[in-house]
Please model this.
Amino acid sequence: MSEADHPRDDLTPALTGAVQEGMPQAVADLTDLVRIPSVSWAAFDQENVARSADAVAVLLRELDVFDSVEIARAPVGDGDELGRPAVIARREPRNGAPTVLLYAHHDVQPPGKDEDWDTLPFEPTVRGDRLYARGAADDKAGVTAHVAAIRALAETIGRDFDLGIAVFIEGEEEFGSRSFANFLQRHKSNLAADAIVVADSDNWSVDIPSLTVGLRGNVAFKLTVSTLQHASHSGMYGGGVPDAMLALARLLATLHDEDGAVAVEGMTTHEADVPDYSEERLREEAAVLDGVSLVGRGPVLSRLWNQPTITITGVDAPSVANASNTLLPKVSVRLSARVAPGQSAREAFSALERHLLANAPFGAHVEISDVDLGDPFLVDTSGWAAVEAKNAMRDAWGAEPVEAGIGGSIPFIADLVREFPQAQILVTGVEDPDTRAHSPNESLHLGVFRRAILTEALLLARLNNRAG
Model:
């Protein structure tokens, strides 16, 4: 029997009804959460992250299925600084049932400028079939999808089920998960599981689900280029003295070739088949302006999933309003690179470092600092957990799931693999191509939300049936 012909269990209709009836509560839980501006970046009020953790803990306790629910923090690296508060809950398995760990994060990206939003970023607003707010999709919908799926399971089969469930709701994913590794080590026994569901990814469309099977890694750092001891008059010395902005522009131009593909020796590409995806669809979904050409070579999804990228995401330089007629002595940028599956982040960073030092123009001084690394990941889809997840997606969505790569990164998955090498990892999500995560007007499609909840409820019910 093929996976597509699998029989549906008798619980499917009951769970479908429970999820549908529970949607008002799920949406209410989500809107309450997104009203808390839980930006984990250092420049923002961390009391809001603490408030968000408290609210998540309340939601989990109210389910009345866990042996323990607690809020905890772990050190960042080897120092005394503590990471942001996370929520962990655990219910021990019974009668030989497996344990599943459900992950999501309750922190969010900064909202940006209010004027770039059609509605205020922390005032959840429903327009049509979408809920708009910062964190509405990434990833407070992941948090509330876990809660709603467990609620539907308990209402359908009772709270005395056999499945073990651990929940880990992180509080600093958008800030680099800097205490993640230490947190796993400190709470390993409470987080140990046979399967791990990471609800922080995308779907192929609002009608077709995805199981993410490949993730690029990431390398990010601050790059500073210096040419002068102090600023000098551009009229008096320009034309003879290289300013830092000129040197930086020349250096950054060496990172890409004429097609816009990465031109750094030592950064590799992963060879894998990809689904068809047109350049026209890419232009539409990425909002490319008329007349602007695309970059890179090869199939579109190979460029997005399996090839390295380099992006400058921030610049420290005088604003146009504050510009004076001076040669800048020093300029800094934030460089963000995506690493193709199959290459370690450390190896990619070394290649970038060699390239930048070797190509600095005019003898400019180059400094690299504030380095963040995250390894890529390839999911093994042959295990029982992946089979059950795809079957649940078929039944919940009424469509064949796509095994998809993701251009973005979830670097902490490498930590999960290291701490729980026997666990099967499933990367799912509630986003779709119109979600605009991290951007103004982030939104959640409520139909996707319902189907994602049902998928997880079906998965939990079927894992519960593996007891004994």
Remarks:
- The mean pLDDT is 94.
- Residues 3-215+377-464 form a domain with the Aminopeptidase fold (CATH 3.40.630.10).
- The longest strand covers residues 217-226.
- The chain has two domains: 3-215+377-464, 217-270+307-374.
